[in-house]
Design a protein that fits this description.
The protein is α/β, with parallel strands linked by helices. The chain is 39% helix and 14% strand. The strands form 4 sheets. It has a 7-stranded mixed β-sheet, sandwiched between helices. A 3-stranded antiparallel β-sheet has the order 9-14-13.
Length: 398
């Protein structure tokens, strides 16, 4: 008998984690699978950051429960980072350190949404946004950016989506899953739409800030008086290759920061003490490892772009950040091989997993059922091999 709540039954399993689990199952059976499904750096956490954690353990000063919103010295360092890198003025009291940027965003939705409140979600979007909104009893309203516009929804589209029920707007830049980056002029146009709606909170997910190949990263909170109602989300997973350390944070209006702190205090309390010391080391340490990682991603981007353009039927844009491609693959919908029919992109991803032994993620999970997401956080050898296999498997479909 299913006695689960309607709340949990209403949300899907994370598509990225589900595909990663299927790939692991095949690997456990001895099948060599190349995984291009997870958004996880293939680099090790830089040595000086590891050493920061080891020093904290050896000191024996960080074994007690940390403050719910994070150690004060870390929050001060994050405040300085916002000021230095983003021209944003958040005091230490406006910073909340959480168990990854995912919890940071969930805290905010739980803190600000009432049943029926609407959240405008710029799509394609990171898979968990909609589930988080639903768990907080809100309603996502999707505004779709297409490949023709580099997958970026426009200010006019956002204006049309806003209603009296709109409580928040959320987007990522650089974007997961598309790698698209909003320019200053594009953000200014969005800000102009939102300037008179003081009741709308803007949630700007900037977790991929340090993996940016084009113009300088811009934060929407710097435009006009928007910082007064902007939550800027960031963390250490991507730019510092610290996914397993689980350290994310927000800079937010004080009332939201206090509410997020209250929410976190009831759910998890503070983030791991040792992980926080590693995060402090990352902020205060040399940036050369991060710069080298970003350069490696940029090299891979060029490689993957060329390989994808060799695959018939793939429509590809050139992403300006993060480490993903999001090709439109509608060309293959309706095709088949033997008894296997490709009706959806999910079908296509499952076919490629079983035939090419390459793990990818359907774009439907990100708000676009005609696309799939490819992570190039993998070695150039694996990328070349994987995309060659994908090309061969697709050629079998008719």
């Amino acid at each position: 008998m299913n006695q689960l709540s309607n709340r949990i039954n209403s949300i899907p399993e994370s598509a990225t984690l589900a595909m990663a689990a299927k790939a692991r199952e095949m690997k456990e059976k001895g099948v060599e699978v190349i995984s291009l499904s997870l958004g996880e750096p293939d680099f090790k956490t830089p040595k000086h950051i590891q050493d920061g954690a080891i020093d904290a353990i050896k000191s024996e000063d960080f074994f007690a429960y940390p403050p719910v919103n994070g150690y004060l010295d870390l929050r001060k360092a994050i405040s300085e980072k916002f000021k230095r890198d983003n021209n944003l003025e958040y005091s230490a009291d406006q910073i909340v350190v959480s168990n990854g940027a995912k919890q940071s965003i969930a805290n905010v939705f739980m803190a600000i949404l009432n049943p029926g409140d609407e959240v405008v979600v710029l799509t394609p979007y990171w898979v968990s946004y909609s589930a988080m909104i639903l768990l907080a009893e809100g309603q996502p309203v999707f505004v779709r950016g297409t490949i023709e516009n580099d997958f970026k929804a426009t200010a006019d589209q956002i204006k049309e989506a806003i209603t009296e029920k709109t409580k928040a707007v959320i987007f990522s830049s650089p974007c997961n899953p598309t790698g698209s980056v909003f320019t200053k002029s594009e953000l200014t146009a969005i800000a102009d739409v939102l300037k008179d709606r003081k009741d709308i909170t803007i949630i700007s997910d900037e977790i991929y800030e340090l993996i940016n190949f084009g113009e300088k990263h811009e934060s929407i909170g710097t435009i006009g008086d928007l910082q007064e109602r902007t939550v800027t989300v960031n963390g250490f997973s991507k730019g510092f290759a610290m996914t397993g350390w689980r350290v994310g944070y927000i800079g937010a209006p004080l009332w939201i920061a206090k509410a997020a702190n209250k929410m976190q205090g009831q759910y998890t309390s503070g983030n791991c003490s040792i992980a926080q010391r590693a995060a402090l080391t990352a902020l205060n340490g040399p940036m050369e490892p991060t710069i080298k990682m970003a350069q490696a991603y940029e090299n891979r981007r060029s490689l993957v772009y060329d390989l994808l353009n060799e695959i018939p039927g793939f429509e590809v844009n050139m992403p300006q950040g993060a480490f993903y491609f999001f090709p439109n693959v509608k060309h293959y919908l309706g095709k088949s091989i033997n008894d296997t029919k490709i009706d959806t992109v999910n079908d296509l991803c499952m076919y490629l997993l079983e035939d090419a032994h390459v793990s990818l993620v359907t774009g439907e999970a990100f708000g676009d059922p005609e696309c799939l997401r490819i992570s190039y956080a993998a070695s150039e050898e694996d990328l070349t091999t994987a995309l060659s296999k994908v090309k061969e498997s697709l050629a079998k479909l008719s």
